[in-house]
Structure prediction request, 437 residues.
Amino acid sequence: MSGPSVAVIGTGYVGLTTGACLAALGHHVVCADADLRKVERLRRAEVDILEPGLPELVADGVESGRLEFVHETPAAVAGAGVVFLCLPTPMGVGGAADLAAVEAVADEIRTVLAHGAVVVNKSTVPVGTAERVAALIGRPDVSVVSNPEFLREGRAVQDFRRPDRIVVGAADPDAARRVAALYAELDAPLVVTDAASAELTKYAANFFLAMKLSFANNLATVCERFDADVDDVIAGLGHDPRIGAAFLQPGPGWGGSCLPKDTHALLTVCEESGVEFPLLRATIETNVRHQRQLVERVVAGCSPGDGSLRGVRLALLGLTFKAGTSDLRDSPALAIARLLKERGAELRAYDPALSESRPDLSDLLTLAGTPEEAVRDARAAVVLTEWPHFRDLDWETIAGLLTSPVVYDFRNLLDPRRLGRARLTWEGIGRSFAMAG
Ligand code: UDX
Prediction:
């Protein structure tokens, strides 16, 4: 077969990481994206997303000629032995995944695909999508494989190169083997299965992570009630290898581009197919309730007395859904900001990953260029993203700029003793100053 061996459709953080990492493994990869400006920038190895190691890999790939970028999908697909679909599957009406992009591309490539090509769904798609895409393509010589990604934003390159596992699902074992062979150099457990099981694995993984987080956040509330220290309880739990300490850090609720949309999509398909999964609904509801409770704490501490936050200026430290990314999609920080705003608060926020001009946020808050500017004349500061350098801010200066010395640390990030020395009152989640100090 002549031409590229791998095509990647969609150059978001999943597609670009997949393309650049496959090129680094020695494959010839052609990536396509509908955004022409993005394609032009990528050809010059200019990467817009914040993903450590990715710009270097893209530059290497472009320089070696193993990684190319095109605007037209058919140009990438023609001649490719394996075609990865790395397209957005946002939350659609009623919570189900919106497959419009996947279906449109399937339709676009059906006549262009090389004889015997394999199409791979990498986007998180509902159970049955591999079958549906195969039907849309309608070619007996073309197989559709599910190969879900488990890439964390901000660690995508690392996760690709050292995966916990590789899951490949297909009706045709030969197609599954061809996809698995692309990763042959990676040292990771390989799970080869049918397409539906592979598709479900991704949803189950993200649901389980969200469930751990809802558990941790609810546990923090229980700890507050009984004067226990959630950090110590979690340390005690996490040493049990059956439980593990990861994803048990309480915070302002879970969010991001995957966990909310995937848990909602799984809930929707379960409900539609008459399967009861009460844990799933409870996981989502716990997240919503937890965020409301956090906002009530701020109201209790900062309200002028009428149960509102009218006329109260608050400083928000961090807006992205986690540290190390500039992504705001479904950010729990924004969810909390909206709830505070609903109560009448005036919000000024600082986030190291965001520039000062964000017209999309202007109805909600004002962006400050420094933490000091954000806290000036604010009634309290609220930490919402776990940017590590927040620990080392000049808390004495901040104490002098706030109108009352309170910091709500909704990431349990800061050192309460350090804040105490700056004469600031620290309010964490699931632990009190006395315990932490
Ligand atoms: C997630 C999955 O981890 C990844 O496997 C999947 O393929 C895509 O979705 P990502 O959205 O990049 O990755 O973020 P992740 O690091 O999983 O964080 C999700 C949310 O959990 C964030 O809101 C984060 O702040 C929160 N979190 C994480 C906690 O509150 N506490 C923790 O201990 C860990």
User: Anything to note?
Assistant: The radius of gyration is 24 Å.
